[in-house]
Amino acid sequence: MNACETTEAPVAARGAPVPIAEVREADANAAEVDRILHICNACRYCESFCPVFSAMTRRLDFNLADAHYLANLCHNCSACLYACQYAPPHEFGVNLPKALARVRRDTYVEYAFPKAFGQLYCRNGLAVAMAVSFGMALFLMIAIASQGRLFVPGLDADFYAVFPHNTLVLLFGTTAAWVLVALGVGLVRFWREVSAPQETLANPAAIGEAATSVLTLRYLDGGHGEGCNNEDDAFTLWRRRFHHLTFYGFMLCFASTSVATLYHYAWGIEAPYPVLSLPVLLGTLGGLGLIAGPIGLYWLNLRRNDLQIDERQKSMDRGFIALLFFISLTGLALLALRETSGMPLLLALHLGFVMGLFLTIPYGKFAHGFYRTAALLKHAIEKRLPNPIQAGSD
Amino acid sequence: MSIDVLVIGGGNAALCAALTAREAGASVLMLEAAPREWRGGNSQHTRNLRCMHDTPQDVLVDAYSEEEFWQDLLKVTGGKTNEELARLVIRTTATCRDWMRKHGVRFQPALAGTLHVARTNAFFMGGGKALVNAYYRSAEKLGVQVRYETPVKELVFDGNRFVAAITESGERIEARSAVLAAGGFESNREWLREAWGQNERGEWPAENFLIRGTRFNQGVLLKFMMNQGADMIGDPSQGHCVAIDARAPIYDGGICTRIDCVPLGVVVNRDGERFYDEGEDFWPKRYAIWGLLVAGQPGQIAYSLIDQKVIGRYMPPVFPGITANTLPELAQKIGLPVDTFMQTLNAYNAACHQGTFDHTIQDDCRTEGLTPSKSHWARPIDKPPFYAYALRPGITFTYLSLKTDRSAAVRFEDRPSPNLFVAGEMMAGNVLGKGYTAGVGMSIGTTFGRIAGSGAAAAALNKS
């Protein structure tokens, strides 16, 4: 039993959903994708919305691997749901975004490393993210308090007077290494399962196309450039914009940390860095993106039509969004108040959230970027090969 | 607030009328019989618009001239059309897409490998329901009022002048002018039964019809207008009728229930006999006659049979076929008389002339000395597993219509009403006396929807 506990009857036959007892939920979710895609393949009205449909036309049946691949290729823009003549209340009950969202969580669970930890995806919600972060922060605060007092004046923004540099490197370096291993193993397993032998990675054009699709969030444009759906059949570009703010904000913060590491080890320049230094400028800019982006995404998430999504993942999504927001908020507060006696406490709080993110990365929403990138790469490779199905004139 | 233009209906033609009238400055109220989730009538199941164009245009390749469009229409209708109105429709399709885009409709290229349709038809991105959604959004933005679940049962006239509509719940809604765009009577099974009557076998063929589209086109206003003495045109048994999977739902099966393997195999009736040349032409050019062909068979059922060789060579069907490893077993599984069935299949297999099979062209695989013959794609059905798909007539929409002219006005005793107009399926029979060619229903609906909306706005505003 790999999947999270069943909350709804699984489905199987082509027409209406039919309850089947004792089916593994992940298999039932994949079977629902197969059922729906047989209907979609006979209709094909949605072909230009996104690559899920062009990938579909290369297949007649959809096995578990296909379901995992297509689930991660789907960006949940949901244009196909609102356009669907077979969507509920039609007896065919076609809801591809929801069916794929469910399989998407199964992907994260199935390919998690170590496998037993996959179950964490089912519980990694807002509460867990906050509990882990505050737990870590509390732990660090106790460490500070054990030195005598919580408010320490006169440190002149010297973070390493609170926690020695090497302690931080050890703590976060090992966690980051673990994150990379866990995600890497999952990705390799995913790739092995969904890709065919002739789909070689030595394909610069495909890699370029996939990278462009990822970096521009091409498939949140709805296929016509007006964006995706959020609460109803109207299109919006805000999801794409807020995601860009979040993603590029995160990347700027990552760049800030990388530059700071370089400063520290290559040139021996130690933190704190002046406000106009490269690490602080990158971090501030990124931090602002990571404030605005997550707020926007959270706002959209609150308004999102439940029909489009797997409701059970809402908490995971919000937990991730909240972590990014609080990392940024505490980071910017730390920058503003680093000269005050509250610095050690703020530092502990900030590091708590960063550690909260690190610990939940391999078992949380963060994984979506990696699996989706892999699916986009597979699609870019696959579409350059001849279509095995020649349905011919229509 | 008083209403200038009342639009009765909620599909493409009604929306085009409402948007056009609103653009002309009229206040508009739309009455849609269906609840919001079923809005849009048969338009929600459509996928494209047949368009004339003299040069390649965005999603349309090559050219499709007015004359070629007209000749295609002439051919499928067997001359049962109105050249003036048909050419009006054809010319409008050359320019209407910018207006459609303005109201949020988006187009997409035709499916890969469908060159002949990519030349003649502009596909809606996401299909007809996406188009309907876009029009409703635009209508709401422009201030068109929309009321769902408000079917109209009758109209009030002063002579040939429209005065008010009476809803099913008895509410009286007055307006200065009105557009009727409430669809044909295809969802009314009782009326279909009566229109098709009883055949020589004593069967009521329409009892075995499936309705491909909405359940809300009951033809209430069509019948009311007939009884009011409005000028009518068309034969009630004519319509867009195709052969679809017999397992399709009674309503709203839409496009996906089609069975596209017909030209790649053979089709037998309930007695196990073939009855028509399955390979006469490409399926898109023939599917619209197969509804009537199946309707003419005993029990209004037929079976499309193929073998393993053609799997993946036609648009995948929505329901899995019935399979067997031998032909007699297949006959038993679908309940056909095995002896006749095997005689038919053996005779067909023996008559297949050796050729070079190519499902993308009209190839040279044909039968020799067989009646009925099969002109193309004829190869022996001999490679198991074998597949069978039961076919039923699926009715898309009926052609019995209110007679009109290029003003879209409803007519009484050959005189136009000053303020009542008609669009969509309720008048499509003026152009389509019989037969069909893909996408022309939306061409008619868009053209006459806009003419009706414009006429209704003019009638209302001049008065006010």
UniProtKB/TrEMBL annotation, chain A:
Keyword annotations: Iron, Iron-sulfur, Membrane, Metal-binding, Transmembrane, Transmembrane helix
Transmembrane segments: 125-148, 168-191, 245-266, 278-300, 320-337, 343-363
Protein's UniProt keywords contain Cytoplasm: no
Top-level taxon of the source organism: Bacteria
Domain 4Fe-4S ferredoxin-type stretches: 29-61
InterPro entries listed in its UniProt record: 4Fe4S_Fe-S-bd (IPR017896), 4Fe4S_Fe_S_CS (IPR017900), Citrate_utilization_prot_B (IPR012830), NarG-like_sf (IPR036197)
Keyword Iron tagged: yes
Protein's name in the database: Tricarballylate utilization 4Fe-4S protein TcuB
Lineage of producing organism: Bacteria, Pseudomonadati, Pseudomonadota, Alphaproteobacteria, Hyphomicrobiales
Gene designation per UniProt: tcuB
From TrEMBL, chain B:
PANTHER family: FAD-DEPENDENT OXIDOREDUCTASE 2 FAD BINDING DOMAIN-CONTAINING PROTEIN, FUMARATE REDUCTASE
Pfam families from the UniProt entry: FAD_binding_2
The UniProt record lists the keyword Nucleotide-binding: no
Segments traversing the membrane: none
Protein name according to UniProt: FAD-dependent tricarballylate dehydrogenase TcuA
Cofactor: FAD
Coiled coil: none
Domain FAD-dependent oxidoreductase 2 FAD-binding: 4-431
Keywords: FAD, Flavoprotein, Oxidoreductase
